[in-house]
Amino acid sequence: MLQAILDVSGFNKTFFNHAQGTQIPSSNDVSFKVFPGRLTALIGPTGTGKSSVLKGVYRTYLPSAGRIVFRTAQGLEIDLAQASEHQILDLRREEIGFVTQFLYCLPRRGAQDVVAEPLLNRGASQAEARAQACALLDALNVPERLWGVPPATFSGGEKQRVNLARGLISRPRLLLLDEPTASLDPHTTDRVMQQLDGLKADGIAMLAIFHHPELVERIADEVVTLKPPVTH
Amino acid sequence: MDKILEVRGLSKVFGKGCSQCFASTGPEFDTNICPHCGSVVAAHDLSFDLYKGEILGIMGESGSGKSTAVKNLYFDQMSTCGEAIFFDDDRQWDLFKLNAAERRWLRNHRYGMVYQNPNLGLNFGISSGGNIAERLLMSGLAHYGQIRERARELLQRTEVMIERMDEKPGSFSGGMQQRVQIAKALATQPPLLYLDEVTTGLDLSVQAAILDLILEIQRELNTAMIVVTHDLGVVRLLSSRVLVMKYGRVIESGLTDQILEDPQHPYTQRLVASAL
């Protein structure tokens, strides 16, 4: 039996807006598992809190309720909902990656350096990190003339691919993907899917949201349908 | 990961102070001026840990006490109460119990400081190379040729034009002065660097270059840093964790992305919502 790398049970996220004194319910009682070498897709209409689940796992959001048990490379079980800030930072550097919908990066750095950053943070040499970054940008169809250019002026699709490359380069044990192909053409989407297939073959676990149902059909091993939030 | 700094209950009061200063100021009273004695509670009960090589942000508006925190740890001000431990290679320094000589030694050998105002960090009466030499001399290096070579390397590293190392910083642009200040602070390769609003007032392209430089240095030297800023963009780009201050108190702390995307305190929510 394959052992889950991530076991989420009863996850709940509700925001409280102090200025308006209102509660904004998002994810509601979400439970699922993610396994090594397999992809779990979250589906459901807009507003069911799909992104909130990813952000809760990454701890960009503070979960309101539930357990998020992550099994580390050493076999330790850590509840990400309760883990300390430094524990989370260590896991983000070594084991958990997140490809968000937006690219935040330093203004002056070229695309290849933006992509190489996670490897440098782990102590890889500049030359080695750069070489891997270039290979990945190439695999994702980013034209070579852009590699040295800061991504600030890139198109939406180009930025998305830089962001994706940065998420893939460190080959985390668990990769979170929030609509990684939303602004890509079919040909480039295909390239991305090939990369994700490669990650699966290498035993990397993925939790993802896709814009297009046919992509879920094509790549997901488990599908979790989110329920609409409870409104009062 | 190892701790480099542990701060517990740091408080700073300006004025004579009274027994009710702490209990009658803070965010819930909407003031940091004691209604009983008129003293200013610049900081109260600040506690946090800093790990080696980590960048911690302290954010808040003017007068929230964020610079006070750094000034007390750097000994520009003397704390009113609290405790702070600096973990050195083979000993621990109880920061608020040190004598003047020990404080000076720490500033010269273990700390670096970059102020918003270069006038505070640099000696405008001597050349930029001389500024760095001065710090190297204080840390014990005595050989003229070595000092000059090291100053040259540092200025080159911080992208200050080497032809100008014999000019006084007064003839430099604001961005260049900040680079010289950073070079000076780094001269002794300190494990802990304080940065107080270092990009405030600089134009955007210069800001970007300075932030880039700071991150490169952090990676190269594994320097722990405390970055004081009111700029949410600076916090997002530089720090992994952040403290939010108001009226001298830490009202919220957490992972930087969590504080910016899922703030819990009403003040932080307003701050984040009003960012450009």
Please sum up the structure shown.
With 232 residues, chain A is an alpha/beta fold.
Give the radius of gyration of chain B.
Answer: 19 Å
SSE topology string of chain A: EEEEEHEEHEHHHEHEHE
Enumerate the strands of the largest sheet of chain A in spatial order, edge to edge or round the barrel: 8-9-10-5-11
> Termini separation of chain A (Å)?
41 Å
Identify the CATH architecture of the largest domain in chain A.
3-Layer(aba) Sandwich
Question: What is the makeup of the main sheet of chain A?
Answer: 5 strands, parallel
Low-confidence stretches of chain B: none
Percent range for helical residues of chain A? Answer: 25-40%
Report the CATH topology name of the largest domain in chain A.
Rossmann fold
Multimerization status:
heterodimer
Structural class of chain A: alpha/beta
CATH class of the largest domain in chain A, named Alpha Beta
Largest interface: A-B, 22 and 24 residues
Count of discrete alpha- or pi-helical segments spanning 4 or more residues of chain A: 7
Fold-level CATH name of the domain at 1-99 and 224-276 in chain B: Rossmann fold
Q: How far apart lie the N and C ends of chain B?
A: 35 Å
Would you count the extended β strands of chain A for me? 11
Structural domain count of chain A: 2
Tell me the β content of chain B.
15-25%
**DSSP helix count of chain B?**
10
Could you give the topology of this structure?
The complex is a heterodimer of chains A (232) and B (276).
Chain A: E1 6-12, E2 14-17, E3 22-25, E4 30-34, E5 39-43, H1 50-58, E6 65-71, E7 77-79, H2 85-94, E8 96-99, H3 111-121, H4 126-139, H5 156-169, E9 174-178, H6 186-201, E10 205-209, H7 213-219, E11 222-225
Parallel strand pairs in A: 5-10, 5-11, 8-9, 9-10
Antiparallel strand pairs in A: 1-4, 1-6, 2-3, 6-7
Chain B: E1 3-14, E2 40-51, E3 55-59, H1 66-73, E4 81-87, E5 92-94, H2 100-109, E6 111-114, H3 118-121, H4 128-138, H5 144-157, H6 174-186, E7 192-196, H7 204-221, E8 224-229, H8 232-238, E9 241-246, E10 249-255, H9 256-261, H10 266-273
Parallel strand pairs in B: 3-8, 3-9, 6-7, 7-8
Antiparallel strand pairs in B: 1-2, 1-4, 4-5, 9-10
Helix pairs in contact in B: 4-5, 4-6, 5-6
